[in-house]
Write a structure and sequence with these properties.
Layout: E1 2-8, H1 12-23, E2 28-31, E3 46-47, E4 50-51, E5 56-57, H2 61-79, E6 91-93, E7 96-99, H3 103-115, E8 120-121, E9 139-142, E10 146-148, H4 150-164, E11 167-168, E12 177-179, E13 184-186, E14 189-196, E15 213-224, E16 233-235, E17 239-242, E18 248-252, H5 266-279, E19 285-297, E20 303-306, E21 313-317, H6 323-340
Length: 356
């Protein structure tokens, strides 16, 4: 079997990389076992244009946000019929109702409103939904944020790949790789380029052990809150994101650098439940508890590109919590770089890290 590109992993990065290769009419095969935990599937899917207590704009957001909106919309056109499209939205704009934790937070918000009124807004009248929360310090709106449906994206695109015969449901086994100056083969697959998009797999991949990949554990609860309007994403001590199933919400997420396992923890469940009971005035039921390990970067920037010592072997990952916006943008950038020799963003190019 011969292919131009062999991709490892069908998470957000592998999905978007294969999509842009398909748009360029290139041959590719993806290896993905399909039965391992995938942090992308359990993500809340929120693209937030501001971040942190100082409410600074997210890195590259003025480029990332319009690109993401355009590409998710185009991918919907590929994956869904006209009858399915109203029910299967991969992305939709949804404002964030931001509750202030402290008077200083409101002061910071008011200052940033004057600087970035395109993203931030202070309502002149209280919003009806605020009566459902205990938040005496007030609230503001984060505009132009988007909600992505990662699980719908990955499952629908997997079906598309299987129909095309471009997905092999098997785990990549490193001893089966034969890559030399003259040979590029994995088992019976001969390839020109090998690109790893297997997320946390990079942490144990000796080809990329010089990269500061940082595994991060995230946990979230799935809640049933039937009386909470889905008009906003609600952000306070937690983030509440509406799910497809009516009345169901994603509540999270933790961000743990130090952890013992990838399992849901009693401590997170109890602390999140306690926080919800103090913040939310409505009754809720815990439906599920998710946990996953996602590949982060110690410097909070992705890893994109090909190895200097192996120019035919590359990596796309390290997107962390912002994978829904970063993955399409940098997958396209990598494809354009390989096929049309356009430059990679120097802050994301993995060659910024040299092997000793």
């Amino acid at each position: 079997m011969k292919t131009e590109f062999l991709l490892v992993g069908q998470g957000l990065c592998g999905t978007w990389l294969s999509y842009f290769l398909e748009q360029e009419k290139r041959e590719f095969i993806i290896l993905d076992p399909g039965n391992l935990p995938n942090a992308s599937r359990q993500a809340g899917g929120l693209i937030n244009p501001v971040t942190g207590r100082r409410l600074v704009t997210t890195w590259r957001i003025d480029e990332l946000l319009p690109f993401a909106h355009t590409q998710y919309t185009r991918l919907s056109q590929l994956l869904f019929t006209e009858q399915e499209k109203p029910r299967h939205k991969l992305i939709e704009e949804r404002n964030i109702l931001q509750f202030f934790a402290h008077p200083d937070t409101r002061v910071a918000f008011e200052k940033r409103v004057r600087e970035r009124s395109d993203y931030l807004h202070l309502p002149t009248e209280p919003l009806a939904e605020t009566a459902l929360f205990n938040s005496p310090q007030g609230h503001g709106l984060i505009q132009k944020s988007c909600q992505v449906r990662p699980d719908l994206l990955l499952s629908s695109y997997k079906k598309h790949l299987l129909q095309q015969g471009r997905l092999l449901e098997k785990k990549f086994e490193y001893p089966q790789l034969n890559a030399t100056a003259s040979t590029h083969r994995y088992e019976d697959i001969s390839f020109d380029y090998l690109i790893f998009c297997d997320g946390i797999g990079a942490h144990t991949n000796t080809l990329f052990d010089h990269l500061p990949v940082a595994p991060v554990k995230g946990e979230a609860l799935i809640l049933h809150i039937p009386d909470l309007p889905s008009s906003y994403v609600y952000k306070g001590p937690l983030t509440l994101i509406p799910l497809d199933q009516e009345g169901h919400w994603w509540a999270g997420s933790s961000y743990e650098w130090n952890f013992n396992d990838s399992n849901p923890s009693v401590a997170y469940r109890e602390s999140t439940t306690d926080t919800l009971q103090q913040w939310l005035s409505l009754p809720f039921t815990i439906v599920d508890h998710w946990a996953a390990i996602r590949p982060g970067s110690k410097e909070r920037r992705p890893f994109v590109g090909m190895l200097e010592q192996w120019p035919t072997i590359g990596f796309l990952g390290g997107m962390g919590t912002k994978g829904c916006s970063l993955a399409p943008y940098f997958a396209n950038q990598l494809v354009q770089h390989l096929l049309h020799n356009t430059p990679l963003d120097p802050e994301a190019d993995l060659r910024r890290f040299k092997r000793n």
